Amino acid sequence: MTDGVDGKQARRTNSSTPLGELFDHGLDSWSCVYFVVTVYSIFGRGPTGVSVFVLYLLLWVVLFSFILSHWEKYNTGILFLPWGYDVSQVTISFVYIVTAVVGVEAWYEPFLFNFLYRDLFTAMIIGCALFVTLPMSLLNFFREALGEYIDGKKESEEDQSKSYKQKEESRLKLSKLLLCGTELVTNIQVAADIREIHRRVEEEEIKRQRIEKLENEVKNSQDKFDEITTKWEEGKRKHIPQDLWEILNTQQLHCAGLIEDKNKLINELQQAICDPLLCALFKELKVKDDQYVKDLKKQSDDICLLLERMEEQVKDIMKSFRQELSHIEKAFELERQELLASNKKKWERALQNHNSKELEYLINRIKKVEDYEKQLNRQRIWDCEEYNMIKIKLEQDVQILEQQLQQMKATYQLNQEKLEYNFQVLKKRDEESTVIKSQQKRKINRLHDVLNNLRLKYAKQVKQFQEENHSLTSEYKRLVLQFKEIQRAMRHFAIIDDEKFREIWLMNEEEAKGLISRAFDVDRIIHIQHLGLPWTEPDFWFLKNVGPISQQQQKTATQIVEEVLKQADEEGLEEGTSESSYLDLPKQISAKTTRKILMLLCDESGFLIESKLLSILLPLEKNECYLLRLDAIFSALGIESEEDLYKLVKFFLEYRAHHLSASQVSPWTQANLERSSLMSALERMSLMSTSGFEKSLMSDWDLEQEQEAESLLEGEEESSVGGEQEEEEAPPSPKLIHPNEVLKVLEAFVMGLRKPRNFRAPVRMTKSKRDNSKDSEYWKALATVIPSSTQNLWDALYTALEKYHLVLTQRAKLLTENNSLEQQNSELQLLLQQYLHSKVGGQERGATVEGG
């Protein structure tokens, strides 16, 4: 309000400046936001208040009116309704005062045809913007475009005072004169600066050339030095004196050349520096002296010129100031004379009007006096009659009052006798009460003694209970420590059991795979060697597994959303196809329902996304934009895993079901049903968050409580089977969830999601339970790796090989018999030969004997 008063005062006194108007309009635009937000804060939000979208539209309506008004002022120079901000501020103050007196609930009362008072305020804002500000601003703009404001501007310019015009003209002339004078004076300094810059540039160029020459020489000398050092390395590898002598001579020549180049550079620099100093020293000094004298002379001339220009400028400014002052004085004189003449004319007209009004007033007064005299006469007659009537009436009243006085005296005498009797009775009762009081005092003393005894007993019992409490707390702490130790031991044993289980698994798996590999080798040998058939090694999934079968890794919420969007696009492109979905969703939740709920959440939870991210998402495609928006919303809500996302979708569907049932109930029970549905969903989420491994480590009491909760949950699940079947028959439609209720559902879901984390339950050891459903299948698959057809083939081959083995054994027996017969035959041959030889020898010996 002070801002508006300041702006009006500045415009009224003609003291406003462009900078002041800029600040004034800036503050007005800044306060536009707070006008709407602060006023509508008393109306509330949600289904009983004003929605965020309506508040957003009203804010844009106010800002549009503000921009339109200033656009009108910029183009036409006229601001329609300049008192609009004052009226709005007074209206807002009135609304606050009314709210403070009657309360916020008054704005929710119906005004007409279920039209509330807060809706009346909203309609007033929109109506003023559409039917007052917009038409008048456009009308003024079109009038300006058609030239209807030209005459008005001329009249307004003529209305301005001559003194003000003369002041403005004088101010402009003097500012131009000061600007030209300042430029004329500073030209001298600018010229001197330019000369100094040129001199410094020349010196920098000479210095740059010298540095460049030195750098080139350094590079050349470094190259030569590197060449010399490389040849020293070559010389170290040679051992012949002649080669060493040649290398030494070449190195000396290179070193001499390098030193000569350095000496040449030094001589050149000395000639460039010393020769001018030695040979032309006096000449250069003379040139520098001449240059110095010229610079001093030039500076003195510049100073003189500067002083002359300054004096001329001062004289011109003084002269122009005097002229403009005289023109302003003349303008003020003319304006004063015009004002005197106009005021004199106004005074004469005012005197004439005053005389005519005085005459008219006198005539009217005479008429009124006559009328008043007539009325006074009539009033006197009426008062006399009324006085007589009142006198008669008062006399009658006096007689009646005297009779009543006599009656009151009689009653007073009777009452006095009654009071004396009552006084005697009360006196006797007082004596009795004193006796009772003394008895009660003695009773109170006895009760005080009893109270003191009870206090002593109470103090003893409190002390005893404190000691018992202390002992019980120490015992509780000891049990807690023992419980923690047991937990740590159980965790240790669980880890050891897992390791042993894995080792045994790996050992059995390795043994089984060894047997399988031997079976495959046997099968390969049978096919290739015995049957002559090609053999291919079978490729089974369970042969690639190493270690226990781990549970499938759970997907993140963002991956599930991406799959839902992809599946929705595929369904839009290929409608009517009967292919199964690649998305693994629960049976009671369809991908279409999930996508609708996620789109509703994305549209209604934009306030959870940062403004920078929204600006980045504009050029992206639709699915990418939805995916990034949902990712930001999930990170804000704390939804990370696939399980959390399914909990959210199921929470929305349960809320919808309760909302449908509540719509068929009376309105006064609907709020209680919604609250009970939200609380039941929260309890169900908190119960589902406990795992089976936690139940095995809880105390007996916790186990009983959880068993009761599980039985209740089973009952609820059995009762909800029919509802689920109905949902499967008729898929849920999230359109029944109103967008205004999304924030309420989200708030309840976040409370339920954070409740198990913040709940201070007993310390329990949590461990993810391994899925052992595929273990039996895995081991059965390892046991049945050889199919029945192959086993039948082996059996047939086994019988054939057994027969072949019998034949071979018979042949082996025959071969052994043959070998034994051959051995006997050879032995017999040897015996025969020995016998024959012995017989021949005997005959020869007999012959010799006979001959001898």
TrEMBL record:
PROSITE patterns: CDP_ALCOHOL_P_TRANSF (PS00379). Residues 708-737 are annotated as: Disordered. GO terms for cellular component: axonemal dynein complex; membrane. It is found in: Cytoplasm, Cytoskeleton, Flagellum axoneme. The chain crosses the membrane at residues 27-43, 50-71, 91-108, 120-142. GO terms for molecular function: phosphotransferase activity, for other substituted phosphate groups. Component of the nexin-dynein regulatory complex (N-DRC) a key regulator of ciliary/flagellar motility which maintains the alignment and integrity of the distal axoneme and regulates microtubule sliding in motile axonemes. Plays a critical role in the assembly of N-DRC and also stabilizes the assembly of multiple inner dynein arms and radial spokes. Coassembles with CCDC65/DRC2 to form a central scaffold needed for assembly of the N-DRC and its attachment to the outer doublet microtubules. Component of the nexin-dynein regulatory complex (N-DRC). Interacts with CCDC65/DRC2, DRC3, GAS8/DRC4 and TCTE1/DRC5. Belongs to the CDP-alcohol phosphatidyltransferase class-I family. This is Dynein regulatory complex protein 1.
